[in-house]
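Demo today. Your pick:
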Amino acid sequence: MIAVLFGFTGCGSYNRLVTLEQNVNKKWADVQSVYQRRANLIPNLVNTVAGAANFEQSTLTEVTNARASVGRVTLDASKAPTDAAQLAEFQQAQGQLSNALSRLLMVTENYPQLRATEGFQNLQAQLEGTENRIAVEQNNFNAAVQEYNTALGRFPTNMLNKMFGFKPRPFFSAQPGAETAPAVNFPSFGSGAGAAPPGGPGAGVPPIVTPGGAPAGAGRPVAPPPGGGPSGGVPPLTTPAATPALEATP
């Protein structure tokens, strides 16, 4: 009786592992599909950008080489990899292509006429949408792998792993430096920006000249303003005459 119950349990566990493994492979195929879509968009993007006058050829070459390196990392699109090193190599190549595309789009900021064309705008929108789909499909794949790997480690399913050849699957990992915000470097206008001018504070400020023509604080008396008076022709202020004090009456 116990053997029969264990047999039914084993059959149920085996069937569940098959289902979970198929789900992992499906999610892997979805990841490969969006990566392939991005690879197909790159030639059109390069051809569109290359038509701009004086566009940086080194940036285009970087994108082309990164796309070629992705093609050299071949993995079975119908079956999720079991080797973590192979998945890491695949992800590294795809990450290099993502960085090259990001730099290409940043360089296009210097070409407003190119960015204003309908063809470039359409390609940019498709690339941005594809990058978002890549992130979504990677998360879906990791969720499927987590469920599958968890089932492999549970009893009595773990007893079937070696018997039927079920192997755990590696995860997509975060790109190195993804947790760090990119540094923004503003151009410095001159090496002495923010420093006091030579000669101490205020050395670069022209001296204040009094109406008599001499700089204030020059060590000589300041000439009185025209008119001979201290206020230069402006009549002095006069105060009303003092009112005589009232004498107290006896």
The longest helix spans residues 2-50. The chain has six helices and no strands. Confidence is low (pLDDT under 50) at residues 1-6, 177-250.
